[in-house]
What does this fold into?
Amino acid sequence: MAIFLEKFLAGQQPVINGDGLQTRDFIYVADVVAASLKALDYPEAGIFNIGTGLETNILTIYLKLQELTGSTLGPQHGPGKPGEQRRSLLDRARAWARLGWRPQVDLDAGLAQTVAAFRAGGSCTGF
It folds into this structure.
């Protein structure tokens, strides 16, 4: 995501590796912090997946960032990365049930906040 944003904001062409249909479970950094703080108070040792439980493909992220940045640069695909994971989706159930945690920032709001931070001179502040 950071590479796409940096390229878009510099007026350069980002390149999607492969077809762009590989998925990830994108979560906003403030939600990860909130989950971590809840875990600090959890009375037992444990392992928790901190995610949204939602898959989003890379092409969708590209198109949303293109729109948010006002770029006219359409998707350009390069070769896929050998061995790249095709799908990534976290099982959030344990964190939701035991920590009582839920993500608060949806994908669109998180992307908008991340774009704003990059425009303000920040960097990887979002996803």
About this structure: Residues 2-119 form a domain with the UDP-galactose 4-epimerase; domain 1 fold (CATH 3.90.25.10).
